[in-house]
Amino acid sequence: xxxxxxxxxxxxxxxxxxxxxxxxxxxxxxxxxxxxxxxxxxxxxxxxxxxxxxxxxxxxxxxxxxxxxxxxxxxxxxxxxxxxxxxxxxxxxxxxxxxxxxxxxxxxxxxxxxxxxxxxxxxxxxxxxxxxxxxxxxxxxxxxxxxxxxxxxxxxxxxxxxxxxxxxxxxxxxxxxxxxxxxxxxxxxxxxxxxxxxxxxxxxxxxxxxxxxxxxxx
Length: 218
Known about the structure:
alpha/beta, Rossmann fold, four-stranded parallel β-sheet, 4 strands, 48% helix
């Protein structure tokens, strides 16, 4: 099977490129597409007028329609699916899922798709494996890591920054969003290879893992 994975930023792509083979093995193919932010679902689910901005949710109606048409041309011997991976942030999960399925159900033909939402943010999936965090960052602050509640709405990336970055989230934020983004990619690069994907404590990561395996029949 082939899986197209859509993520909202470069750190998400770094993590997916490492974690997906851990989940699926080598029998399937995948490609990860990173965007320049999550954005928002367009009003009335209309296609965005400027796809060059590469904002994930802004482009989602057009993307899913395109995948529907592309996948319809594949034979049964070459099944394919698209998987959206993005942060919940401060959205209502139930409402957000309903909006995503509204877009999917408006597609004709409709692609096989799964929507996997990191709660609250993608760093929750890294924090779901504290031993991996400690292996990657031996000097990480134990009291910060041990105080984290999996998939809690707590400012997740800030929590990880507080554990592994000198000066914590405030010092990192002061350097600007480009530096924040680069640091998030570093966290993914260092932590993801050390993760035991079947022992992860993040419920939203476990949902992602399960949906990938369901797609390929595992």
